[in-house]
C-alpha cells in the first residue's frame, strides 16, 4: 500500500510574533551576544551563532524572532558599509571633498554638520547633489555639533526631494538635531522601520508618517512634540513607541489598535473624543517593562477602566499611576482637578496590577484610603514603592511586602504618624525583617507637615532615612541600625536631641534656610564620620563641632552667615574638609580632590538624589 507522506512547510524569516510566548529571554540573550560582536570586538571572527536543542522546542522560532528584531537589523546594516560625512567646507569645495565611487554600496550614512554650516543641509546645491548618490543607503543619521561660541543650534530643514530619492531607507535617526519639521514625503519611505526624532524641536509629525506600515520603532522622547496625528492606529507593525515620560504629549484615539506594541513609555489619557481613552490599554497585551499612565483624573467611566485588566499584563514590571498629567504637584494640599475623591478610590482599586510587579509609583491620589492591594503581601517581588502627593491619613501596610528595598513617601499631606498600620494586620511590629540586611533600605518623607512621630519599630534594618519639610516631627525615637540621616528644608530643632540613633555615621543638612544654629552636643553624633551642610542661608553657628572626635570628612557650602575658622572650630580627627561660600571664606580645603569629598561620594550623591 502506498504510504502517505507529509511535506515540511517551507521555512522563512517571517514569524507571527504576537502568537509566541515565553521566548523573550532566549531572544534577548541571542541579540545581546550578536550585538556584542558588532560592538567593536574586531578580533572576533564569529561567523555562525548556533542554537542547540531537541527537535520541536522552538529553535527556528527563536532564531526568527532575533532575525526580525529592529536592533539586529540596524546592526547588520551598519556592519556592511559605514560612511561618516562631515560638512564643514565652503560650497566650491564640497564636490571635491568626497569620493563617491562607492556611494551606491554605502548602507550606513552619518551626516555630521558643524554649527556654522548647518544651513548647507537645506540650501547648498552641491551638497544636495552629493547626497543624491547615496540613494541606496539603508540607515541615515544626522548629527549636529555645537561650537564653543554658541549654545543653540542652527535650525535644519529636511528638503522634500532629499527623502523622495531614498526609497530603500530602513532607519532615520534625527535625534539631537535642530530639525523643526519633517517633509510630507517621509510617508513614501515604505521600507522604513525605525524613526528617531528624540531631543529635537519638532512640534508635529506630518500625517503621512502613518503611511509607514513597516515602522516598528518610533522614538520622540525629550522633544517638543505637542500631539500625535490621529492616524497612529495605522502603524499596525509598531512594537516600540518611546515617547516622553517626563512631559508627555497627548496621545490620539487609536493607540489601542497597535496590538503588537511591546514598549510604551507614557500612556496619556485625554478628555475629548479624539483623545486616547483608558480602555485602549485592553488590547495592548504584549506590553512589557515599564508603563507610566498619566491623567487618570480624566477617566469618567469605570467600565472603561475595568476593561484594561492590568492583572493580566504580567510582563509589566514597573508601573506608575499618575492622576495628573505631569509630575508637578501643589505642596499646599490642592487636589487634582477632574475626578472626584470617591471615583479616584474606585479607580485605583480597579487598576490592581499583576503580582510580578517590581516597582510601583502612585502620584496625586486624592482618595481618603489606599486600596487593599497596595501593600498586599501577594506582591512578593515588589522591591521599590513611591507614594507622592496623596491625601490619605494612614499609610498602606507596606511592611507586609517581603522584598521591599526602597520606599519613598513624598507630600503626605494628612499623615500625622507612621504607626502599626504601616506593618499590616497580621504583621509583627518589627516589620521588614525578611529584607536582606546587606541591602540598604531607604525611606524618604517629604513635604509632610502633619507628621508627628515615627514609631520605634519602623525597621531594625533601616540604615538610611531622608526627611524633607517634616516640621512637626520632633523625634524618630530608636532606629538601632540607622547610619545615614538626611535633613532637607524645614525640620524640628529638637529632632536630633530627642532621637536615639546609636549607629549614626553621616548627616546631610541641606536647603534648611530657617535654621540659625545647629546643635551637635548630643550622643547621637558622637560616632559621626561625615557631615555635609549645604545651602543653609541663615545658619550662624554650629555648636559642638570641635567635639566630634570621630569626624573624618566635612563639607560646608553656601552658608553666607556662617563665620568659621577651620583651625579653631574643626576637630583634629578630620582627614579632609572643604568650606566654600561661608562668611568671609570664599574657598578653603584640606586634602580635598574632585571626586573625593563627601558631596561627591556614593552616599552623598544617593542622599541628594533622593531629596531631589
Quick overview of this protein structure:
This protein is α/β, with parallel strands linked by helices and 612 residues long. The chain is 16% helix and 21% strand. Mean pLDDT is 75; it is low at 1-13, 38-45, 88-96, 147-151, 434-442 and 594-612.
How many DSSP H or I helices?
A: 12
Helix and strand content put the structural class at alpha/beta
Helical residues, percent: 10-25%
SS strand fraction: 15-25%
Number of strands: 26
The whole-number mean of residue pLDDT values reads: 75
Q: What characterizes the major β-sheet?
A: 14 strands, mixed
> Which ranges are low-confidence, i.e. pLDDT below 50, for 5 or more consecutive residues?
1-13, 38-45, 88-96, 147-151, 434-442, 594-612
Name the overall outline: globular
| Strand order in the largest sheet | 9-10-11-12-13-14-16-18-19-20-22-24-25-26
Q: How would you name the oligomeric state of the polypeptide chains in this document?
A: single chain
Distance between the termini: 81 Å
Rounded Rg: 29 Å
Keywords: Repeat
Domain Disease resistance R13L4/SHOC-2-like LRR: 128-243
Protein name: NB-ARC domain-containing disease resistance protein
Domain NB-ARC: 24-74
Produce the secondary structure layout.
Layout: H1 24-38, H2 59-68, H3 70-80, E1 82-87, H4 91-97, E2 108-113, H5 120-123, H6 125-132, E3 139-144, H7 160-164, E4 171-173, E5 194-196, E6 217-219, E7 240-242, E8 263-264, E9 266-268, E10 289-294, H8 302-308, E11 316-322, H9 341-350, E12 359-363, E13 384-390, E14 406-412, E15 417-418, E16 442-446, E17 453-454, E18 464-470, E19 484-491, H10 495-498, E20 506-510, E21 517-519, E22 530-534, E23 541-543, E24 553-559, H11 566-569, E25 576-582, E26 585-590, H12 602-611
Parallel strand pairs: 1-2, 2-3, 3-4, 4-5, 5-6, 6-7, 7-8, 9-10, 10-11, 11-12, 12-13, 13-14, 14-16, 15-17, 16-18, 18-19, 19-20, 20-22, 21-23, 22-24, 24-25
Antiparallel strand pairs: 25-26
Amino acid at each position: 500500500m502506498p504510504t502517505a507522506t507529509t511535506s515540511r512547510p517551507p521555512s522563512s524569516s517571517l514569524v507571527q510574533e504576537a502568537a509566541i510566548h515565553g521566548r523573550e529571554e532566549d531572544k534577548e540573550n541571542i541579540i545581546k551576544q550578536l550585538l556584542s560582536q558588532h560592538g567593536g570586538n574586531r578580533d572576533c571572527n564569529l561567523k555562525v551563532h548556533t542554537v542547540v536543542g531537541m527537535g520541536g522546542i522552538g529553535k527556528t522560532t527563536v532564531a526568527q524572532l532575533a532575525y526580525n528584531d529592529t536592533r539586529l537589523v540596524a546592526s547588520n546594516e551598519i556592519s556592511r558599509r559605514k560612511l561618516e560625512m562631515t560638512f564643514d567646507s565652503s560650497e566650491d569645495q564640497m564636490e571635491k571633498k568626497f569620493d563617491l565611487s562607492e556611494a551606491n554600496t554605502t548602507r550606513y550614512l552619518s551626516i555630521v554638520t558643524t554649527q556654522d554650516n548647518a544651513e548647507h543641509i537645506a540650501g547648498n546645491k552641491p551638497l544636495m547633489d552629493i547626497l543624491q548618490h547615496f540613494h541606496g543607503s539603508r540607515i541615515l543619521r544626522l548629527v549636529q555639533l555645537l561650537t564653543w561660541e554658541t549654545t543653540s543650534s542652527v535650525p535644519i530643514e529636511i528638503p522634500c526631494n532629499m527623502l523622495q530619492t531614498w526609497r530603500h531607507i530602513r532607519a532615520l535617526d534625527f535625534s539631537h538635531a535642530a530639525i523643526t519639521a519633517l517633509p510630507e514625503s517621509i510617508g513614501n519611505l515604505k521600507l522604513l522601520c525605525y524613526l528617531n526624532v528624540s531631543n529635537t524641536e519638532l512640534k508635529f509629525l506630518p500625517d503621512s508618517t502613518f503611511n509607514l506600515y513597516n515602522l516598528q520603532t518610533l522614538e520622540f522622547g525629550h522633544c517638543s512634540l505637542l500631539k500625535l496625528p490621529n492616524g497612529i492606529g495605522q502603524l499596525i507593525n509598531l512594537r516600540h513607541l518611546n515617547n516622553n515620560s517626563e512631559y508627555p504629549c497627548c496621545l490620539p484615539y487609536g493607540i489601542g489598535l497597535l496590538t503588537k506594541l511591546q514598549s510604551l513609555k507614557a500612556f496619556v489619557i485625554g478628555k475629548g473624543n479624539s483623545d486616547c481613552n483608558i480602555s485602549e490599554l485592553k488590547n495592548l497585551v504584549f506590553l512589557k517593562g515599564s508603563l507610566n499612565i498619566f491623567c487618570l483624573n480624566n477617566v469618567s467611566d469605570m467600565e472603561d477602566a475595568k476593561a484594561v485588566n492590568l492583572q493580566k499584563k504580567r510582563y509589566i514590571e514597573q508601573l506608575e499611576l499618575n492622576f495628573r498629567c505631569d509630575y508637578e504637584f501643589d505642596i499646599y494640599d490642592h487636589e487634582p482637578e477632574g475626578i472626584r475623591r470617591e471615583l479616584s478610590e474606585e479607580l485605583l482599586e480597579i487598576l490592581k496590577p499583576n503580582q510580578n510587579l517590581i516597582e510601583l509609583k502612585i502620584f496625586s491620589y486624592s482618595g481618603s484610603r489606599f486600596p487593599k492591594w497596595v501593600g498586599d503581601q501577594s506582591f512578593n517581588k515588589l522591591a521599590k514603592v513611591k507614594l507622592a502627593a496623596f491625601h490619605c491619613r494612614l499609610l498602606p501596610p507596606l511592611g507586609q511586602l517581603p522584598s521591599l528595598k526602597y520606599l519613598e513617601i513624598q507630600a503626605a499631606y494628612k499623615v500625622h504618624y507612621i504607626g502599626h498600620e504601616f506593618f499590616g494586620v497580621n504583621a509583627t511590629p518589627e516589620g521588614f525583617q525578611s529584607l536582606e540586611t546587606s541591602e540598604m533600605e531607604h525611606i524618604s518623607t517629604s513635604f509632610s507637615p502633619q507628621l508627628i512621630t515615627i514609631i520605634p519599630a519602623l525597621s531594625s534594618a533601616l540604615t538610611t532615612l531622608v526627611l524633607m519639610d517634616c516640621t512637626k516631627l520632633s523625634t524618630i525615637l530608636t532606629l538601632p541600625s540607622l547610619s545615614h540621616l538626611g535633613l532637607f528644608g524645614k525640620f524640628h530643632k529638637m529632632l536630633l536631641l530627642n532621637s536615639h540613633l546609636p549607629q549614626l555615621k553621616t548627616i546631610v543638612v541641606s536647603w534648611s534656610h530657617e535654621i540659625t544654629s545647629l546643635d551637635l552636643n548630643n550622643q547621637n553624633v558622637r560616632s559621626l564620620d561625615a557631615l555635609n551642610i549645604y545651602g543653609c542661608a541663615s545658619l550662624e553657628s554650629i555648636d559642638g563641632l570641635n567635639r566630634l572626635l570621630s569626624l573624618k570628612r566635612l563639607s560646608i557650602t553656601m552658608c553666607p552667615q556662617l563665620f568659621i575658622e577651620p583651625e579653631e572650630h574643626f576637630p583634629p580627627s578630620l582627614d579632609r574638609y572643604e568650606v566654600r561660600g561661608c562668611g568671609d571664606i570664599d574657598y578653603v580645603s584640606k586634602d580635598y580632590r574632585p571626586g573625593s569629598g563627601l558631596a561627591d561620594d556614593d552616599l552623598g550623591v544617593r542622599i541628594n538624589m533622593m531629596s531631589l
